[in-house]
Write a structure and sequence with these properties.
The structure is a single chain. By secondary structure, the chain is an alpha+beta fold. The chain has one domain: Gcn5-related N-acetyltransferase (GNAT) (Aminopeptidase, 3-Layer(aba) Sandwich), CATH 3.40.630. Helices cover about 25% and strands about 35% of the residues. The chain has five helices and eleven strands. Strands 1, 2, 3, 4, 5, 6, 7, 8, 9, 10 and 11 form an eleven-stranded mixed sheet that branches. Helix 1 crosses helix 3 and helix 4 crosses helix 5. It is globular, with a radius of gyration of 17 Å. Bound molecules: coenzyme A (COA). The site of coenzyme A (COA) has 24 residues, from strand 7, helix 4 and helix 5. Coenzyme A binds next to strand 7, helix 4 and helix 5.
């Protein structure tokens, strides 16, 4: 770790996290259930596995220059990029791969889900290259990415969504034995038990850095990352999870 760099340290979320992971058949109710649907509730948020019906909201999220200034390569996305992302996440859930995207809604305290406004996405990715962990090809890792619409910034929602994933979803995935597909140094892919979470953040993205440090992520180094819309320099963070029971 580079001790000459100092980072703002975030305050952790201490509210409730409730989680359900259920089998689902998306296309044909009579068909064998191989898909998954996940709902998570925090004090203020409802997170749900991404569905195609989230597409219009998602396009608006990634099209907005303010939302995108510290995300990926810092450029707004064309609609087609958002469409591919939402399609991929939705397909992952249908296939029962839980390393996928969640839509985040502002929870309606009256319990009426239809009137919950969409406020962003959070994701556990799969397919990450796990070279970063000393060549340990037995330990799976997943990168967490997140995006809250700027209209909802600085209300504690990013922190709650990330805490729901790190403290709720990750341990539950470990308990249920969900494995994450990782790219190995020899360019093959393998499904591995989840043992690490990683994240990247632009150095100037203080909100993101506070969320990550508040959850126990440690700065590991600086890397140049290739995104759909170009390259950018990111701080790289990682957090070891408790070992899953194998
Ligand atoms: C980064 C982001 C998720 C923060 O979301 P948010 O809902 O505004 O964050 P929160 O309100 O939960 O704030 C978390 C902490 O960061 C602080 N914070 C948030 N925005 C900040 C800012 N612009 N400057 C300084 N501190 C900030 C909060 O005060 C809070 O501090 P605390 O831990 O001491 O309480 C949001 O700005 C965003 O989605 N940005 C665009 C996408 C992005 O950058 N994603 C991250 C990379 S994957």
């Amino acid at each position: 770790m580079n001790s000459s760099i100092t980072f703002p340290s975030g305050n952790p979320y201490r509210g409730s996290i409730e989680l359900s992971i259920d089998p689902a058949s998306y296309d044909d109710p009579g068909k064998e259930k191989q898909g998954l649907v996940v709902h998570i509730y925090t004090d203020d948020l409802h997170l749900r596995s991404v569905e195609i019906s989230d597409l219009n909201d998602s396009i608006g999220l990634y099209k907005c220059a303010e939302n995108m200034k510290n995300y990926g390569a810092g450029q707004p996305w064309e609609d087609s990029i958002s469409e591919r992302l939402v399609q991929r996440w939705s397909d992952d859930w249908k296939k029962g791969n839980p390393f996928s995207g969640f839509s985040i809604f502002k929870r309606n305290v009256s319990g009426v889900q239809d009137s919950e406004p969409f406020i962003g996405h959070i994701c556990f990715k799969s397919g990450e290259n796990n070279k970063a962990y000393g060549g340990n090809t037995e330990a799976g890792s997943s990168e967490m990415t997140f995006m809250i619409d700027h209209k909802y910034w600085k209300k504690g929602y990013g922190k709650q969504a990330a805490a729901a994933m790190v403290n709720g979803v990750a341990p539950e995935y470990q308990k249920q034995g969900f494995k994450v597909t990782c790219a190995l140094p020899d360019n093959t892919q393998e499904s591995l038990p989840l043992e690490w979470l990683t994240a990247t953040a632009s150095p100037e993205n203080r909100g993101s850095v506070k969320i990550l440090t508040g959850l126990g992520f440690e700065f590991e180094g600086i890397l140049e990352k290739q995104f759909v819309k170009g390259k950018s320099i990111k701080n790289f963070y990682a957090k070891p999870l408790s070992k899953p029971v194998r």
